[in-house]
């Protein structure tokens, strides 16, 4: 296969710039339409809880550092309990949701803020109101379960989940950017495939390259040479 120089590649792309623009624009328009009209929007709401001192408990200043360390350790344990089967089942039945416990569990995520006593429960749903409702219900059931299991009331709600009507997905800008790159790749691929399949001779240099390896059979003299030799 004949090698192609960088200059030839740039010239080829320059000659076909209109097609590149058209293909990229087409991909971006299709991505925008598909994202806006055919992909379901999802919304998320979060509630934040803090692991603190039990109700009615008092401590000296010297105990504060130790309590903080213990609470941070409890955060990891509590986070696992927040998504336990028992909590998800109680939330599901309490709200009368038309879904399985496993489906509900996939909607709920529990995270901790590094080196803090904060626990964040986030719910993602196609319904923004339902997302907030599930988040707050999960927090309430979770706190009750901790109280019963650990025999201690050391969880408090910092922020309740509110209805967020701004979708978290799909990401329109990201999809358009991906479409732009994909359109560029496809258009360049089409140009090179078309150029590879094109056997048309465009320049004298291409003609010379084509015939340079063909064996010489005869030489046709110029007209001036024939006249000099008497037409022989």
Automatic annotation (TrEMBL):
<feature type="domain" description="Polysaccharide chain length determinant N-terminal">
    <location>
        <begin position="2"/>
        <end position="92"/>
    </location>
</feature>
<dbReference type="InterPro" id="IPR050445">
    <property type="entry name" value="Bact_polysacc_biosynth/exp"/>
</dbReference>
<dbReference type="InterPro" id="IPR032807">
    <property type="entry name" value="GNVR"/>
</dbReference>
<keyword id="KW-0472">Membrane</keyword>
<keyword id="KW-0812">Transmembrane</keyword>
<keyword id="KW-1003">Cell membrane</keyword>
<dbReference type="GO" id="GO:0005886">
    <property type="term" value="C:plasma membrane"/>
</dbReference>
<comment type="similarity">
    <text>Belongs to the CpsC/CapA family.</text>
</comment>
<dbReference type="InterPro" id="IPR003856">
    <property type="entry name" value="LPS_length_determ_N"/>
</dbReference>
<feature type="domain" description="Tyrosine-protein kinase G-rich">
    <location>
        <begin position="146"/>
        <end position="195"/>
    </location>
</feature>
<dbReference type="Pfam" id="PF13807">
    <property type="entry name" value="GNVR"/>
</dbReference>
<keyword id="KW-1133">Transmembrane helix</keyword>
<feature type="transmembrane region" description="Helical">
    <location>
        <begin position="20"/>
        <end position="39"/>
    </location>
</feature>
<protein>
    <recommendedName>
        <fullName>Polysaccharide chain length determinant N-terminal domain-containing protein</fullName>
    </recommendedName>
</protein>
<dbReference type="GO" id="GO:0004713">
    <property type="term" value="F:protein tyrosine kinase activity"/>
</dbReference>
<dbReference type="Pfam" id="PF02706">
    <property type="entry name" value="Wzz"/>
</dbReference>
<feature type="transmembrane region" description="Helical">
    <location>
        <begin position="174"/>
        <end position="193"/>
    </location>
</feature>
